Amino acid sequence: MTLAWLRKKEQQSDPLTPWQQYQARQQQTPRHDRRQKPKLDVNLPKIQTLRRRKLVKNLVLILLPLLLLLGVFGYFASPLSKVGLVSVQGVTTVPDQQVINATKLSDDDLMLSVAFHKNAIAQRVQKSLPEIKTASLTIKGFNRIIIKTSEYQTVGYVYQKHAYHKILVTGEVLAAGTQTPVTTYPVFSGFTAKELPQMITLLKQFPAAIRRDISEIDASRGDANPNQIALNMNDGYRIIADTRTIAKK
């Protein structure tokens, strides 16, 4: 009996484990004193707003490139992407249509191509029409093109191969001829290709009023003088002169 009592005493005096001690304290602590877990304050309207903004942002990132592509395709499919009205400014002796034809533009050409090749088109006009001194292209609106030009001065005509050919201030004789020359310019006759530029230089030294009164300049070469010329005036007078001295008189 004494041995059983000692064993019981030893069992009662055994220390509790930490887990057992924690459970014992929890049982002794009143329920209202126990710490409660903090509640999570969730603002649902704010979360919905953020989600909606993110959705709109994603839609913009997706739709914007698509709209741009549709706009580009729509532009190239519309008549606005191609050459429309072409007008000419600055010409007085060359017909507008002749300048337009020299550009070789058509209503099938894209305006984007014209914008990148404006200088090349202007040079094409100058090469095709020797009387055009300068040319430049300006684009107005979507598909309107303005060709701005300046011309070499016309100093007269020369009669060759049954036609009157225009002579420019540069001395160049145009290949295209006409049967109806402008009467305000004199007609040169009898001069060689070497003498003609010299006569043009001489004519530019005359006063403008006298130049307008001359209807014809003829290399008469009378009296065995190779420098003799005859000036036929609009009033019917005929003046015989020498190219070496006429500019001084």
TrEMBL record:
Transmembrane portions of the chain: 55-77
Entry's Gene Ontology cellular component terms: plasma membrane
Occurrences of domain POTRA (ranges): 81-152
Localization (cell): Membrane
Domain of life per record: Bacteria
InterPro entries referenced in this protein's UniProt entry, alphabetically: Cell_div_FtsQ/DivIB_C, DivIB, FtsQ_DivIB, POTRA, POTRA_FtsQ_type
Residue ranges, annotated region (Disordered): 1-40
Phosphoprotein recorded as keyword: no
Listed GO biological process terms: cell division
Entry keyword set: Cell cycle, Cell division, Cell membrane, Membrane, Transmembrane, Transmembrane helix
Descriptive protein name: FtsQ
